[in-house]
Amino acid sequence: MTLDPTNGGAMSTAMETVDPKSYATILCCLCGTPISPNPSNTCVNCIRSQVDLSEGIPKQCSLLYCRFCGRYLSPPKTWVAAELESKELMALCLRRIKRLSKLKLVDAAFVWTEPHSRRIRVKLTVQGEVLHNTILQQSFVVEFLVELQQCVDCQREAAKMDAWQAVVQVRQKVEHKRTFYYLEQLILKHNAHEDALGIRQQTDGIDLYFLQRSHALSFLAFLNATVCVRQKHSDHLVSHDPNNNTYRYKYTFSAEIAPLCKDDLLCLPRKVAAQLGGIGPLVLVHRVSNWIGLVDPFTTRWQSVDAAFYWRHQLRPLLSSRRLVEYVVLDIEPLRPEMVLGAAVDGRGESKFWMAEAVLARSSDLGANDQQFTVRTHLGKWLKPGDLALGYDLATANVNDVGVAEMLGAVGGEDAAHLLPDVVLVRKTYPRKNRARRRKWVLRELPMERQEGPTGRGGQRERQAALARETEEREAFMQELEQDPEMRATIRLYRDPSVNVEEELEALKIRYAGDRKWTAAERAAGQVRRNAASVHVETTARENNNVFDALPEDREEEREATGAPDENASAACGDDDDDDDDDDAGYPEVPLDELLDGLELDTASAAAGRAAASPSRERDK
């Protein structure tokens, strides 16, 4: 109610507006300062004077720093590399502050100090609950004194002690190293060697040295997940300090890889074949990882064997890939195109192998005799007349195996000699050429220490022979990668930085990924030219074959009298003719989209160094 003087003092009513944000104030119970109401009825200054959130938190701490390697100690015995004012150093400092977990950390920041002062200051802002659910925020500074202490690794290095604490000895007793080449690529892909101090190459394997026993156990776990392996371990007491009762051991882990490789021929014992569902007894090793894939070349049935089953029976190969013989497919006829129960299938659900009956001849027998072999094979999907195939010549092989003895002894008599087939085909092959010249990709290699070769008289010849053998095995492994896309998908291939692939593709007018200069009309015209070129090649090859078949007998007699080589025989045997590109028409090429970038030129040069020094290239020169 207010009085209006213009209206004779009559009373009038008026609406009064009240600010909704204005609240009643109270007096602080300690100092009497007007404040907004809060659960403690106390002002902020009085609360801060009575409560200290940093009580119990040390304002000075110490950090142990090794000036030789530039790492800080993270208790109990881990040394961490961290730069000044980095997030790694901040995390290490916060872990060193006690009772900090009881408060809510709002902010943490470094306070600048002189780098040579050996002081690190961190400003912390924390929140805590005080006096009847009242939240108080407070900031304070914690100072860290950097103290010098030599880490264990630098102590061992200064004392000239062996730095490694554990060694993993990986061994495989086979005639070649293709399994280790594949294992090397798996190690590089998964970076399983990041904790290794060094890698040393041995005659039948490699040795990996680790600083800690846990690193060796991690690598053994990787081996168990990638290859079929069994392991043993032993420890050796190096030193003992009776004053503080400490012992120092060196641990040795022996990892033996199963001596089975891809394309090996096995003859399963009767009991083992029964446990595997009646497969075999003659089977081929088709895939090797932490399990072993076996395929029956006469029924296309497939079985997988895990590491426990293998080491329980310890299957041994009847013949290895070094005993493979090259054959020429004269004729082939499919037997059963339908899928066999238990046969291997690919990702699309189709059978990987087709049964077929093939007529073969040894490549070395062409022009010498007319001996032919009629065999059943599982490669009907891949072979056609005129192709080359690798197989085992059981007709002339001298085998001594328990499984073969059981198989022959179960029948006995004259029928026993017909149980073993004359030939077991393994895989398709291509004419022998030096393909390293046209290869556009390379593989990384582990930084390993090579084993010293023999010295003295004849040592140089032995080292050269070992280098040539290693180069040949690596080239065989790389050709196997080119012919097996499933194996190629498990590793990483890198584009050779020394080869300009784009310029070569542009010169051939082939469009590649990343090229944006070709229009739709140009792509269609290019496809028409490629189709016409393929028809021309097929027509030329057919005419050449007809002309050769129509050779008169007097020209054949003249060729035999002069000792000229037979063209068909030389083409079938796969002579080293790098200038003839027609023989490589069906050879599988690695697609460019499977190659990775990022390999430096020095690494690629080192990886391709042995390929450049291969015996075939020296022979071509």
Report what the structure shows.
- This protein is α+β, with helices and mostly antiparallel strands.
- It has 4 domains: about 40-150, no CATH class; about 160-255; about 265-400 and about 420-430, no CATH class; about 430-455 and about 465-515 and about 565-620, no CATH class.
- It has 17 helices and 27 strands.
- The protein has a 6-stranded mixed beta sheet, with helices on both faces.
- A hairpin with a 3-residue loop joins strand 9 and strand 10.
- The chain is elongated and about 120 Å long.
- The protein starts with a strand and ends with a helix.
- This is 60S ribosomal export protein NMD3.
- Belongs to the NMD3 family.
- InterPro entries: Nmd3 (IPR039768), Nmd3_N (IPR007064), NMD_SH3 (IPR048899), OB_NMD3 (IPR048898).
Jot down its keywords.
disordered N terminus; 4 domains; alpha+beta; 5-stranded mixed sheet; disordered C terminus; 17 helices; 621 residues; 6-stranded mixed sheet; 28% helix
Assess the beta-strand content as a share of residues: 25-35%
> Number of DSSP strands?
27
- Runs in which pLDDT lies below 50 for 5 or more consecutive residues are 1-18, 544-580, 611-621
Ends distance? 119 Å
Count the domains. Answer: 4
Q: Please give the radius of gyration in angstroms.
A: 39 Å
Q: What's the arrangement of strands in the largest beta sheet?
A: 7-6-5-10-9-8
Q: Treating each run of at least 4 consecutive H or I residues as one helix, how many helices?
A: 17
The average pLDDT value, as a whole number, equals 78
Morphology call: elongated
Region (Disordered): 533-621
Biased composition (Low complexity): 601-615
Family: Belongs to the NMD3 family.
Organism: Cyanidium caldarium
